[in-house]
Amino acid sequence: MRVAALSTSFLALLASAAALGRPEIKGSKFFLDGEQFFFKGIAYQPEKGDPNPAQADPLADAVGCKRDVEVFKGLGINSIRVYQTDPAQNHDECMKLLSDAGIYVVLDLASSQKAINRADPQWDTDLYNYYLSKVDAFAGYDNVAAFLVGNEVANSVATVNSAEYVKAAARDVKAYIKQKKLSIPIGYASNDEPEIRDDLREYFDCGSDD
């Protein structure tokens, strides 16, 4: 029943999304309407006052969104990055407020409780299905600019082996999005550790396009 509900929601969102054009990648740059697109944004994850900050979902908080989108307009930003969301919640109102303001969302598929563990990395069906539930919940919104499959998972020499699990996640999520006939970039927020950052960049960019 849950899968059917997600699929129905996904199709409904696709039918309603038409306002904003989605930036696309050409070479190593983003473009929108034929011109290079530059992200000018902030990380957005308010938790103050939430009874369980680890599960806070700012895009399900319509009251908070109405308040904060007005601030975003004043800042002149065109994008936000959101780390934590709940795919079971309704995000229609917040996402429309952001879309109407011309603000794109870069969305993490992991959460504080469901993510690849750098100390004991695994990419299993439970985490795979959780990531796909996020895709189904958000892919229909016209202002989703990209999905991120991890956040600084490999952050030291001792944890670089976790990168292969992140790369597997990227491969499988890309395949799912392709299966849905969508075009949404998949990314990874890498760590800026001098010893490994160049090698990680080359590792994530090597091999097949998949």
TrEMBL record:
This is 1 3-beta-glucanosyltransferase gel4. It comes from Spiromyces aspiralis. The lineage of its organism: Eukaryota, Fungi, Fungi incertae sedis, Zoopagomycota, Kickxellomycotina. The gene is gel4_2.
